[in-house]
Design brief:
With 76 residues, the protein is an alpha+beta fold. The chain has a single domain (2-75), classed as K homology (KH) domain (GMP Synthetase, Chain A, domain 3), CATH 3.30.300.20. It is built from 3 helices and 3 strands; from the N terminus they run H-E-E-H-H-E. Strands 1-2-3 form a 3-stranded mixed sheet, covered by helices on one side. The longest helix has 13 residues, at 50-62.
């Protein structure tokens, strides 16, 4: 799942080497924390949050087999 997030985000940003994803999980949730350069945060969020919403939709759909709730957050 981490690779999927990185594959989607890297082409969108100016500093692709600074894109990292960390994962934390408990019994009901999996949280992916996306860390980027501060200048790239706006590009990933997009106008009115459309880009991050689309990324989250893809990640949530890909993660339905885990039987856990998946969250994707951007670390500022």
């Amino acid at each position: 799942m981490k690779e999927l997030i990185v594959t989607i985000v890297k082409p969108l940003v100016d500093f692709p080497d600074e894109v990292t994803v960390s994962e934390t999980s408990d019994e009901k949730n999996i949280t992916y924390l996306l860390t980027l350069n501060k200048e790239d945060i706006g590009k990933v969020i997009g106008k009115q949050g459309r880009v991050i919403k689309a990324i989250r939709t893809v990640v949530y759909a890909a993660g339905t087999s885990h039987n856990k709730r998946i969250h994707l957050e951007i670390n500022e």
